[in-house]
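Figure S7 source data.
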Amino acid sequence: MATTTHLLIIIIFTITMTTSSTSLPSLTMEQNQIATKIIDAMISSGSFEDWSGAFLNSNDEINGPVLTSTLFLPKTSVEGINATSSLVVSYHIVPQWLDFSNISLMKPFSRIPTLLSGNFIVVTNNSASGFTLDGVLISEPDLFVSPSIVIHRMASPFNFSRYGRCDL
Ligand SMILES: *[C@@H]1O[C@H](CO)[C@@H](O)[C@H](O)[C@H]1NC(C)=O
Ligand SMILES: *[C@@H]1O[C@H](CO)[C@@H](O)[C@H](O)[C@H]1NC(C)=O
Ligand SMILES: *[C@@H]1O[C@H](CO)[C@@H](O)[C@H](O)[C@H]1NC(C)=O
Ligand SMILES: *[C@@H]1O[C@H](CO)[C@@H](O)[C@H](O)[C@H]1NC(C)=O
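Tokens for the predicted 2-acetamido-2-deoxy-beta-D-glucopyranose complex:
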């Protein structure tokens, strides 16, 4: 039963991924520079817990230009997903302002482009009681919201090896 469901999900994934792709307008040189600065700060912070402080300090309109963006902040760590990997960091940042009201309108299998080139976060369940992205529950939606930045807390880190590529 579990295997059948799993297989079905993979089939649906494959069909949807070839039909509905959201593409991201490419970032300007300045946006890329800010993104690099943010990613470096988060890598140096050393842990998921310290990601939010590093993100907010390096992406602060008072101290310089801001990258309009959304951070998915893992609540717990998971063996095998390293908070100091630039790939992991990049995959948890979406260069768009998406508060929970934006995300809650997305249909299952919608793909959200991330700073990790060619890798998307996938809406896996859009029910109000259990809204998941990449199979991970949004445990605290809209944890932080400013005019240019949103942070959502996730129950655990995303696994881009499993969900990130569009061409599954
Ligand atoms: C995480 O990555 C850093 C830098 O690549 C490495 O030094 C560290 O050992 C890694 N930690 C784990 C738990 O894999
Ligand atoms: C998110 O929601 C706001 C307010 O409803 C809207 O103005 C904005 O266009 C939405 N953004 C996206 C990317 O859909
Ligand atoms: C979505 O989550 C809800 C609440 O946790 C659950 O009842 C439902 O079965 C889930 N739907 C899918 C397609 O997994
Ligand atoms: C991430 O996904 C890959 C591919 O599905 C899998 O091999 C790996 O075990 C997953 N890692 C974690 C920490 O779940």
